[in-house]
Amino acid sequence: MDRTFVMVKPDGFARGLVGRIVARFEEKGFKLVDAKVIQLTRQHAEHHYEHLRQKAFFGELVDFIVSGPVFAMIWEGKDAVKNARALIGATNPSEALSGTIRGDFATDVASNIIHGSDSDESAEREIKLFFR
Ligand code: DAT
Ligand code: MG
């Protein structure tokens, strides 16, 4: 079975959305493999988002992701990466459809409450980075 890495970001965690987000993945048919609350260090955050280092928003993104605890998860299911991204919705919540997590719970791209791996390779890399 395929696996993907998903993380409720500090805004989603602070707003008490972890339970509802977990429920959506369970309802979809995913199986929870592992999960934990973690406060990221700057170094960990910069490593996680290193492919975005050249972007103008990189500093803001790292500040945001270390601003409070996150809830990191490994989910298992068929086409896990693709199905999880479909549940999560478009990067910019203003473009995310209703019924998706970002479409229903967020308005701002800089605080879009959830992360999901974008390929099998990044899922493997991110699972190692967060769960060893
Ligand atoms: P995704 O999280 O949908 O995979 P991404 O990998 O391109 O999107 O970007 C990672 C995160 O960076 C994204 O969830 C929110 C932030 N981000 C992306 N574009 C941004 C922008 N134009 N301004 C501020 N933050 C942005
Ligand atoms: Mg991404």
Automatic annotation (TrEMBL):
Major role in the synthesis of nucleoside triphosphates other than ATP. The ATP gamma phosphate is transferred to the NDP beta phosphate via a ping-pong mechanism, using a phosphorylated active-site intermediate. (Microbial infection) Catalyzes the phosphorylation of dZDP to dZTP, when the bacterium is infected by a phage that produces the substrate for the synthesis of dZTP (2- amino-2'-deoxyadenosine 5'-triphosphate), which is then used by the phage as a DNA polymerase substrate. This is Nucleoside diphosphate kinase. GO terms for biological process: CTP biosynthetic process; GTP biosynthetic process; UTP biosynthetic process. Its main location: cytoplasm. Its EC number is 2.7.4.6. ATP binds at K9, F57, R85, T91, R102, N112. The gene is ndk. One of its GO terms (cellular component) is cytoplasm. Its cofactor is Mg(2+). PANTHER family: NUCLEOSIDE DIPHOSPHATE KINASE (PTHR11349).
